[in-house]
Each structure stands twice: as C-alpha cells, then as structure tokens.
Amino acid sequence: MFLRSLHLRQFRNYRDQAVSFAAPKTILVGDNAQGKSNLLEAVELLATLRSHRSNRDRDLVQQGAEEGSIAARLDRDSGSVDLGLVLRSSGRRTVSLNGQTLKRQVEFLGTMSAVEFSSLDLELVRGGPGHRRQWIDTLLTQLEPVYAHLLQQYTLALRQRNALLKQSSSRTEAAIPLDRAQLAVWDAQLATLGTRVIRRRARAIARIAPFAEFWHRDISGSRESLEIRYAPSVPMEKDDPTLIQQAFLEKIRQRAIAEQVQHTTLVGPHRDEIEFTINHTPARQYGSQGQQRTLVLALKLAELKLIESVVGEPPLLLLDDVLAELDPKRQHKLLDTIQDRFQTLITTTHLDSFDSQWLRSSQVLTVVAGQIAPA
Ligand SMILES: Nc1ncnc2c1ncn2[C@@H]1O[C@H](COP(=O)(O)OP(=O)(O)OP(=O)(O)O)[C@@H](O)[C@H]1O
C-alpha cells in the first residue's frame, strides 16, 4: 500500500497542511518540537485509531479548537481509498471511507496498516508488562480489526467490576456491602470476554514469534536465540474456550479474598505478561542495551512481515527518530529488509547520520513550526 497524500487540519500544531508523498521513503527533517512526530502520529491514528502518545482526543485537537481532522488518500492493490478521521475536543470521533461516514469504527480498521518504531519502543523490553500488552493489542487490532471491539467490551466489564469492588471499600466513607449477585454477573462477563482476548493474544504471539526469532538470529549473526512466550494471568493449557473459561472462574475464586482486600480485579488479560528470553535469560532484567535494541528491531521487522502476510500488502513503516540510534549494521539490516517495498516515513533532526543509500532514494521534507515544505 502507498500513502499518496495526507491533509491535517487543526491537528496538534498543524493548522491546515497538505503533504504529498512522492517516493518510497520520506525523510522529515526539523528541529525538536516542530511537528515531525505529530505527522507520524496522524498516520498511526489512521491505521489503528490509537495513538501511543495520548488516549485523549482533546490532546490531539489543536489547542483552542473544537475539532481537528486527518484525511488521506491511500493506494491499495484494489484501488485508491480516501480515509477521514474527525477528532473532537469533547465528543465522539467520526470516521469515513471514500466520503461515507461509518457507523462503527471497526469498519474503518484494516484499511491502512502501519508499523510504528520510536525510541519509546525500548520500553517494550525494559518497561512493565503494560507496554507489552499494548504492543500485542495494537498489532492484533491490525490483524483482526474486530479485536478492537472485543477489547473495548472487556475493558468496560473490567471497569464495572472494579467499581463494584471499590464501592465496598471500607476506606471510603460511603462503603456498602459487596453485592455478590452482581459480582457473579461481572465474573461471568469477565471470563467470557477475557477468554476471547486471551485466545487471540495467544494466537498472535504464536504467529509473530517465529518471525521475530528469525530476525533476532539474523541480526545477532546467529549468536543469540530469542524466545517469546505468552504468560497469561489465567492458566491456558489448551486452546479450548470452555477449559480456559473454567480456569478463569476458578482463579477468580482463588483470588476472591485478595480482591476484596485490594478492591480491584486481579485476574484477567489486563494482568498478562509476554516474556522475552535471549539465550534462556530474561531480556528485561539481564539483556544488555545492544541485545535489547536488537530485540526491538527484530520485533518491528517481524510486525512488518506478519502484517504483510496477513493483509496481503506491505504496511507502512513509521520510524520516529530511531534511525540515528541504530548502528550502521542494524541500519543496513533495516534498509535491506524494507528496500522499496515498504513505504517508510522517517523523522530526524539531522541528515548527517543517514547512509547515502537512504538519501538517494528518499524525498526530503522540512518541518518548521507545523509547516511542511520540500527541502
Ligand atoms: N494539541 C496541540 N495543539 C497545538 N500544538 C500542539 C498540540 N500538541 C502538541 N503541540 C505542539 O507540537 C509540538 C511537538 O511536535 P512533535 O512532537 O511532532 O515534535 P518533533 O518535531 O517530533 O520534535 P522531537 O524531535 O523533539 O521529537 C510542540 O511544539 C507542541 O507544543
């Protein structure tokens, strides 16, 4: 797929800016805080309806404005598509395809695919499990758009169950006795929806692991072997929904007292972990900086390949200020992999760290205070 053009109106620091993309690689160069990452964020939003920098639309709409929008024209093998996303500082978003407003946001997902790679991604290895859950969820949203809806339903059930547990908190003045009948209703909901989330995550990890393990071996010159393991909060011996649901409810029973003491839900996919081990050693605690960087690069290359194989077309690659951080060997690996097949948008503060091969095949644009111009 190829993103032909993008039009940002009252989005972050862009008032009204159109951009046309004319080469497989576009380098956006500019000083700090000029709007480079904001542009990549707009593309990420079209692909996933999520931003890894903010989950409030109010932050995305230009300060002082009520409404902002992102419009794009995307070429796919099946033809061109016009995508539209309207964000509101208060109120719901609207999405459209070819000028037609869609009733459900999940119908919008799956039109454009993108893999984002920024320095924040090191947190995928170093940070807490929430980063890894967000990573797999964002990937799943692109592989199986309906997952976005499922996750939303799970989060809602979780929130309501937590609210019920909190109501009975003896620390609050208006404490009321725990409504066990109501809790049982939420237990059942949580187990049903949670089981569906767990099975999909397990499936996605099983699919991405061989790709990532291949790239890790390749980048490390076969000196290292990576293993990715899903560690769900509910034991999952077999991919059988009835068994997982039973195990889910059983674990809720086991943790009932702890939940009433802590007033929060302790069982479910919101407590899942994804473990990365390199040569049988946990990468999070013991990986060197170099190993962690190799791992993140391997994961990103794996995402590209997996999305490509599922969607049937190469996704876009968004490199937010990471190229300069990669050593020449890793830069080459990335370049070799993407060649001209994956349209790539790259942000940087200076061009000197770029290999001449990158510059030759790139369109270079400058970004100054929310204005984009050819370099
Ligand atoms: N909602 C908003 N309304 C107006 N301006 C905004 C909004 N959100 C962010 N900005 C502005 O956008 C700029 C940051 O842009 P961005 O994050 O894209 O920086 P960048 O060019 O990628 O810089 P760096 O190299 O530091 O990452 C800041 O000047 C910030 O004040």
TrEMBL record:
RecF/RecN/SMC N-terminal domain sequence ranges: 2-351
Coiled-coil parts of chain: none
Compartmental location: Cytoplasm
Primary location recorded for the protein, binned into one broad class: cytoplasm
InterPro entries in the record: DNA-binding_RecF, DNA-binding_RecF_CS, P-loop_NTPase, RecF/RecN/SMC_N, RecF_2
Gene Ontology biological process: DNA replication; DNA synthesis involved in DNA repair; double-strand break repair; SOS response
Any GO molecular function: ATP binding
Keyword DNA damage among record annotations: yes
Binding positions (ATP): G30, D31, N32, A33, Q34, G35, K36, S37
Origin: domain of life: Bacteria
Keywords (A to Z) from UniProt: ATP-binding, Cytoplasm, DNA damage, DNA repair, DNA replication, DNA-binding, Nucleotide-binding, SOS response
Gene3D superfamilies for the chain: P-loop containing nucleotide triphosphate hydrolases (3.40.50.300), RecF/RecN/SMC, N-terminal domain (1.20.1050.90)
Family: Belongs to the RecF family.
Role this protein plays: The RecF protein is involved in DNA metabolism; it is required for DNA replication and normal SOS inducibility. RecF binds preferentially to single-stranded, linear DNA. It also seems to bind ATP.
Protein name per its UniProtKB record: DNA replication and repair protein RecF
Protein species of origin: Thermoleptolyngbya sichuanensis A183
